[in-house]
Amino acid sequence: MSTYTNPKGGDQKELILADGSKVWLNAASTLKFPSDFKGSERVVELSGEGFFEVTNDVAKPFRVKIKDAAVEVLGTHFNIKAYEDERISRTTLVDGSVRMESGSQRVVLKPGEQAEIPYPSPGVTGNIKVVPVGNTDVVLAWKNGFFQFDGEDVRSVMRELSRAYNVDIKVDPNVPEDKGITGIFKREESLESNLKLIEHIKSLGIHFHDNGKIVRVTL
Question: Percent of the chain at pLDDT above 70?
Fold first, then answer.
């Protein structure tokens, strides 16, 4: 198996696999894949976030392994977000059909649906939950050079910015979990510029302090 890692702070990277399938990797993401797909199925492993455009081959299903689950497809477009530091993995189907497997659980997604798998604690995997996605553009914004959030909690947003800009961001414990961020921000802008935009959201009431090594988020 070959391994390709898009490091923290890296721009979106496009890979073309041996069967012609395309994969776009977000920052801080790793894909393991064979130089040639032999046998009865095509298997890759993802840690992080990737958008897949899979070449159709009915005789040889395409499988993506993530944490303690797998996504199986024939030919489709879908996004997987499964970072090790996130407590929920999310697989979003844009078109086609995919089947999610986790332990004894199996669910089939339809376009516009998202499968969520919680990881409440190390070594523990929760049940698959299927939810509708009102706007897949929000999910795919990273691929198009944007951060797009729709009520995303502050800590999740800060983890995404930390990966994108390769900086250490710490959120003070007194910042409530229910603080949500909504907006569209350009990936090409500097971290400082985007943090200023977020700081100007009056309903959040949060502030950023950068000492050159760590960005701290406070009320």
Answer: 100
Please list, in sequence order, all residues whose beta carbon lies within 8 angstroms of the beta carbon of residue 71, skipping any fewer than 6 positions away: 63, 64, 78, 80, 91, 98, 99, 100, 101
b/e code 208-219 from CB counts within 10 Å (16+ = b): beeeeeebebee
pTM: 0.94
In a domain, 140, yes or no: no
- The answer to whether residues 17 and 77 belong to one domain is yes
Q: How many CB atoms lie within 10 A of CB 139?
A: 21
Residue 53 lies in a domain: yes
Give the CATH number, domain containing residue 168.
3.55.50.30
Q: What is the pLDDT of residue 123?
A: 77
- Contact (Cβ atoms closer than 8 angstroms) between residue 126 and residue 117: yes
Digit-coded pLDDT (tens) for 58-96: 889 999 999 989 999 978 999 999 999 999 999 999 999
Answer yes or no: do 114 and 164 share one domain: no
